[in-house]
Each structure stands twice: as structure tokens, then as C-alpha cells.
Amino acid sequence: MAATYSDIPSKMVSASNGIDYAFREVGEGAVPLVLLQHFRGNLDNWDPALIDGLAQRRHVVTFDNTGVGGSTGRTPSTVEQMAHNALAFIAALGFAQVDVLGFSIGSFVAQEMVLIRPGLVRRLLLASSAPQGGAGMHGWADDVIEAVGVPATTPDKVLDVFYAQSDTSRQAGKQAFGRMSARTQDRDQATTWETRLAQYDAVCAWGIPDHALLQRVSAIDVPVFVANGDSDPMILPHYSYLLAGLIPQARVKIYPDSAHGFLFQHHAEFASDVDEFLNGPD
User: Fold this and answer.
1) Beta carbons of 265 and 169 less than 8 angstroms apart
2) Which of 62, 151, 186, 218 counts the highest number of beta carbons within 10 A?
């Protein structure tokens, strides 16, 4: 029986930057697909249904960036440093080329990785994303902060941000939470308040309006798939269109009746779309 994300063991790898990174890997494929997690998320905040769907035909790697979850070090407060740390993790695993899927703050880091190290990333997927310098991104709305930015979050509050208000979307969210909590052994360490503060500092700096910075992503010269839910209150869907319009080889898809966690709600459709994109012509 093939291994699934809910039961594969966590591993550690030491990188040249002195950080020991916690990670998990499942599936097989020539070009690894490396995933970068959302704000305050760790290895157990990935939906196993999505990871297993992605791993049907490829090697999928999830990891905690510096200072997050089970990884050592201190979480940096800039997206650029997070990108350098992610590149150190990839180098530690000996990957010469990767595909990258960045989710939320992970999508900011993914953009920087491609700009810092052209040639490493073959194809790029940006979920619930926005370009640096986009107007209106400097800090999140009060209701979003109350849901995901307080010391003790609650499932109902997280549902309000990650899923749409429809019964269908909220039920899908509850099912995703159930899948994420199914693992009972070898669970990852919870992210700390220090990580939350550093990540939000990085998000706010990324969102300072700066029209000139929008031009940076035009240097991304690999195929890019940009996606979001149509009701995301955290990173509004119009940023997906803005981002895709700035990147020469980008396409965009907005998933219906969903929000920030659209990729968990629509896990089967999204995994299929990812597979089609990654297998597309060069």
C-alpha cells in the first residue's frame, strides 16, 4: 500500500546556514514539488487529501521554514530572508531543480526564490497570492486579524477566513480540519507567537504600496499558475489577476464558493489542475 501524508514520518536535514529543517516527503517523480506553507502554518496544516492527490504522480516535499514548527532558528521578519532560507533547505536535499507551490505568505516567498535563483525553479504555482507593493495589501482587515492573528485562534474563526460563508464551503472546511487532525503520532510542533509576529511583519512590509516594485515580477520567466478562491477576505482575488497580468507566462484560475483555503476545499480539482500545469509543454 502506498504511503500517505497522514502516516509518513517527519524528517530533519541540516543546511549550510546552520538550520535543521523539519520536512516530510511522499510520492515519486523526476522533479520534486516543494510546498511553502501559509501564515502560522506547520507540516500538519496541509490537507492530507491535497498532498496525496499531488503525490499520485510526483515527489512532494513539505517543510517548516526557519524558526517554524519543528525547524530550528529564529523566524526572520522579511520575505527575502525567508526565501534565502528556503533555498538553503532545497540545497540541503540536493535538488538541482524543483517545482514550487507557495500558499499565502509562502507564495510571497516563492516569488522571491525565483527572482533570487533563476533556473532553480522549473514551474511556479502561487495560491492565494499578491505581488509585492500592491495597493491595499498593507496589513489585513481587523476581522482577519481577529480570526488568524490572535494568540489563541478558534476553528470557527479560521473557517471565516479560509472558507466562504455558504454551508457547502464551511462543511468542506470542517472536513479538511478533520483530515488535518487525523494524524495522532509524530505531529509537528505548533508555531510560536514569535513566528506569528515575524511573519506578520514580513507580510506588512511586503504590502507597503510601491508601484515600482510591481515591475519586479515581470522578471519571472517560467510558467506560472496563479489561483485563489472567489471570496478570500485575506488576500482578495483581484490580486491574482494583478499578479498574473504582471508575469509574462502566467495564467489564473479563481475557484467558486471558496476563500483562502480554496485548495483544501477543492483539493481534487486543484490537484488535477496542478498536475495538468506541471505536465504542460515547456
Assistant:
1) yes
2) 62
